[in-house]
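Notes for week 9. Today we move from apo structures to complexes. The key idea is that a small molecule is not decoration. When we ask for a structure prediction with magnesium ion present, the ligand SMILES becomes part of the input, just like the chain. The input block below holds both the sequence and the ligand string. Read it once before you look at the output, and try to guess where the molecule might sit.
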Amino acid sequence: MLRFENVDLHYGSFRALQGLTLHAEAGELVVLLGANGAGKTSIFMAASGIHKPSAGSIRLAEREIAGMRTAQIVQAGLVQCPEGRKLFPMMTVRKNLELGAYVHRGDKAGIRRSIDEVFGLFPILEKKQNDPAGSLSGGQQQMVAIGRAMLGRPKVLLLDEPSLGLAPLVVKQVFEVIQRINQAGTTVLLAEQNAFSALSIAHRAYVIERGRITLEGDRDSLLNNEAVRAAYIGA
Ligand SMILES: Nc1ncnc2c1ncn2[C@@H]1O[C@H](COP(=O)(O)OP(=O)(O)OP(=O)(O)O)[C@@H](O)[C@H]1O
Ligand SMILES: [Mg+2]
């Protein structure tokens, strides 16, 4: 469904992604593990067309998307939920959600349906739909950010560190919903430092270090890998 082959990404002369190759099959939930600065966000920025790769190929359902504009990439079915949520705090929850449907803006009935689906996933957002997004708790704001991405009707959903800064109980709720979104058919790439929670819901995972894949495997092989446990999980 999504395939990176030998992708390089540069910021000026700095090579943030170095011949990166990875894939996610339709229906998979694939986790990207990596320390600060490893390149997780850069992978998503390349996929979303926000930073153009300097080499390699990125294919979404067999269609080359490297070099396409972000709006076209969203239209093709790849939607990113960015690190740090990036909501508009003064706008209502509902308006923030609607912004995710920009590429479907002609389809008002479809947007209402998608919003109802998001309210089904996150009932608290229905209650708070007319409140400014900035007045919500961190966990609720993360729910809005995921909901906004769902309004883009992703085939492939990229989630960049959704658990960042959230209390453990809220992390659990957010990961349960991510799993439900995946089980309903959306392919998910999940970048996380919270390795244990992320691997718990994953099919497969990659470890990224300095812009390269250094390890890959299914959930159990990574959960039981000593290097992964030492670096990302702890005792
Ligand atoms: N816009 C930019 N300009 C220059 N360098 C950048 C830019 N964005 C990222 N980098 C550098 O690229 C490398 C990879 O960064 P990236 O944000 O992809 O890592 P990450 O794995 O998402 O890290 P984190 O866990 O902190 O979010 C880092 O060395 C970072 O400093
Ligand atoms: Mg990042």
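The domain at 27-50+77-233 is CATH 3.40.50.300 (Rossmann fold).
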